[in-house]
Sequence to fold (414 residues):
Amino acid sequence: MDSLCDVAVLGAGPAGLAAALRAARSGASVTLVEAGDRVGGLCRTLQSDGCRYDLGGHIPFLRSAERVEWAEELMGTPLIWVDRPVARVEDGRIRSGRYIDQHPDRVGDAVPPDGSAAGELGSTVGASFRDRVIRPYMQKVDGWPLEVIAADRAVKLRDEQRAPDGFWFPPGGIGTLMDAMAAAVTDAGGTIRLGTPMTALHHEGGRVTGVEVAGADPGVIHAGSVISAITPGLVVRAADPAAPEGLLPPVTMRAVALVYLIADRAHVTDQAWIQVSDPRVPFSRIAEFANWDPAMVPPGRTVLCAEVYGTGGPDDPWWSLDDLGLARACATAMADPLGWVDDPSAFRMLEVRRLPRAYPLIEAWRVGEATHAPMWLAGIEGLELARGGTVVTAIEAGEAAADRAGGAVMAGAA
Fold:
């Protein structure tokens, strides 16, 4: 069944929802398509055993009063101020601040930037401090030496994901903000189609003409503009006519297992999110949701999410464990070597979510190649790209794409 709209949006994560909302509120007819059965992408809130918990830890990084007001207007309730910055484990103790935020008193061995995370960090904190404090954690998360990791990865982690004083958080979990955005889209007259994967991006004469979708109502959505809030590689592969060869460089996908542990006890720590660089500990960071929003977990209980990064292959020592074995390994690590609990058996597995393709990694020397696909897509008139690393940068990217699309639609109508 073919349909017609001013703006078609691909993907109902933060960027896609923001794009659809901005376009719908501007008066455009909008259709948002999402392959999954829920909005939010990875920004989702789950429920089990009377508890609410996010799909991993998601700090929105809402930095301005205007953006906080925007979120509160959408949700109809005040945000929660979590007065705890991300913490880290260092010298066997929990200390305030991320590894990447630490700086030495003196920098005597700075190195020049060279396009890698090693060069980027070494130029600011020095090589020895970088290797002692920052390297173990970043390499535990990404699985690559800092010399291989692109400088942009370090820059985004350091600058875009800073919350030195604490952060604003939506009551009930990050998914409540995504649900509020989706409700606002429909209130503004937009259409959201879940379970509707995009199968082809049609373009002709250098201009987008529509998107073909599958699902319950397959067909072509003819649109004046298309906003893509999904991975550029998916769009390139779906291009019809086909995109030129060689646009997509080899990409390594990093896996993450989200291990949820529950116990009938008070909080394990008073921290919201803790980074752990110790290689003996399966997880690289752990969130305790009662410290984000106490209402997410009933009194007398605590729920933690341990994020275990790896290759996702059979050679991965943690990923290769079954769910129960991985949960036990995480609980045991909280006792030894971390020393946070006396009895790890008090923690039971709530659930384990495995994301074998959680995020892509591009080698530092391939960064230029990674721009080929977005640049080709940007050359298609009427197609706008909306991508962001954090929740707020994704929202801002979606809104900016909608503004560009809206201008193009109005120009075409004129």
